[in-house]
Amino acid sequence: MSSSGQVPLCVDMDGTLVLTDLGVESVLALIRRNPLYLLLLPWWLRRGLAAFKREVARRVQLDVTRLPYDRRLLAWLRTQQGRPLLLCTASDAGLANAVAAHLGGFAAVVASDGHSNLAGSRKAAALVARHGALGYDYAGNARADLVVWAQARRAIVVNAPPRVLRAAQAQGRVERVFAREGKPWIELLRALRPHQWAKNLLVFVAPLAAHRVEAAVVAHALLAGAAFCLCASAAYVLNDLLDLDADRRHPRKCLRPFAAGRLSLLAGLAVVPALTLAAFACAALLPARFLPVLLAYATLTLAYSLWLKRLPALDVLALAALYTLRIVAGGAAIPVAVSGWLLAFALCLFLGLALLKREIEFVRVAAGAGLAGRGYRPQHRRLLRGCGIAAGIAAVGVLALYVDSTKSAALYAQPQHLWWLVGLLALWLARLWRLAARGRMHDDPLVFALTDWPSLLAFGLAAAIVLAAL
Asked: Which sign does the torsion angle of CA 279, 283, 285, 286 carry?
């Protein structure tokens, strides 16, 4: 047998060297590019996994410079001077060659070639044919790697689940372990973005505006809020899965669980339908008119993730509609009619906040840069700012007209007190735009407002004004 310094070190790619699955990521990138490719995926799969991977890889070019690499493993590989390093993966050779060229230091690449899917026993056979039994060391992470470790001289276990690690140790060949960092359940909770659930309090707007606060109404509103939380989290996960490249280019979004490789893409793909089904199960317990609203929300969020978020103007209109649908859903869950005044006010207000969100994103990118994955160019910024301020002014105007209408006179004993709301709204919106211009705001104005004490004070004053007008 050759000396330790000459024994080749074969390194797996997906989940080991790279903290993600490039095969799954390629499919997601393909769907993001054109969702109609979903119709071709089953046809390619009929020809086998290797051919499937080759067809996808031919149509997708991932940015390997921004992939989440395991820095601990990379640092250790640099210490393995004097021995051949091989990148050995079940991913398509095109992806593997790109990663190897970017990182450097690999003497060869052994990967799926469009005919043979180099995983499990096939990978073990290929390495034994190349280096002989016990003639190589192997770094891997998955259950399929157990048969590869069984033929290796030494096993390096990287980011493996506990069961795989125990099985590898039982073989008695483990030389080094790079333990999985973080807890998947915590990362999954982060991916669901529970801090965004506060937006779904908007389902209470319609019953409160109609002065309906009895126990049954509150129970229905809570159930509607739960349905929207589940559906919204499914949308957030799907959006993150389809937006991996853009997120990795963003200074803050690059830390999201999927973009950073701390959560399996397959776990995300399983969570999306589970959350969606749970949301519609909640909807089935509410009046029948609630279900179409939730379905419209789910359809619009899917369209936003696949297309609309990359189309200037349509993206902010979609965001405004998604917020407004929460209010409509609150009315459908009671059920109670949602007034035209409330809908007009909500559309104007949320359109302004959606445009404000884009302004915040412009503040955070480099000067002269556009918004990655959003379709906006630097020359759009002034127009966005002007339209956002105009939408906010329109919301203030709609509120003022409502205060002076017969509708408010019918609902409030002293509607003249509501004029204070007009001034309060104008001041609050002006403050948000000022903070955004200074780069002092989170990228979602509504979430920011729920953690900003002047905004919370403004909300408290607004509630007191409404109570005084009753």
From this structure: positive
The Cα–Cα gap between 111 and 418 comes to 69
- The 3-class SS string of the chain reads CCCHHHCCEEECCECCCECCCHHHHHHHHHHHHCHHHHHCHHHHHCCCHHHHHHHHHHHCCCCHHHCCECHHHHHHHHCCCCCCEEEEEEEEHHHHHHHHHHHCCCCEEEEECCCCCCCCHHHHHHHHHHHCCCCCEEEECCHHHHHHHHCCCEEEEECCCHHHHHHHHHCCCEEEEECCCCCHHHHHHHHHCHHHHHHHHHHHHHHHHCCCCCHHHHHHHHHHHHHHHHHHHHHHHHHHHHCHHHHHCCCCHHHCCCCCCCCCHHHHHHHHHHHHHHHHHHHCCCCCCHHHHHHHHHHHHHHHHHCHHHCCCHHHHHHHHHHHHHHHHHHHHCCCCCCHHHHHHHHHHHHHHHHHHHHHHHHHCCCCCCECCCCECHHHHHHHHHHHHHHHHHHHHHHHHHHCCHHHHHHCCCHHHHHHHHHHHHHHHHHHHHHHHCCCCCCCHHHHHCCCHHHHHHHHHHHHHHHHHC
Whole-number average pLDDT of the chain? 91
- Cα separation of 184 and 318, whole Å? 32
pTM: 0.85
β-pair partners for 388: none
Residue pointed to by tokens 């060869």 = 108
Regarding beta strands 9-11 and 154-158, do their DSSP bridges make them parallel or antiparallel, or are they unpaired? unpaired
Q: How far apart are CA 187 and CA 451, in angstroms?
A: 22
Q: In what order do the strands lie in the sheet with 9-11?
A: 108-112, 85-92, 9-11, 137-140, 154-158, 174-178
- pLDDT value for 307: 86
For 98-147, the pLDDT digits (tens) are: 999 999 999 999 999 999 999 999 999 999 999 999 999 999 999 999 99
Q: Please give the Cα distance from 259 to 265 (Å, whole number).
A: 9
The tokens 């450097």 sit on which residue? 104
Closest CA to 157 of 70, 37, 259: 70
Phi, psi of 223 (to 5 degrees): -65, -40
Report the 10 Å Cβ neighbour count for 194: 12
What is the pLDDT at residue 311? 86
Residue whose pair of structure tokens reads 């690499």 in the numeric block: 69
Q: Compute CA distances 153 → 176, 454, 468, whole Å.
A: 12, 64, 79
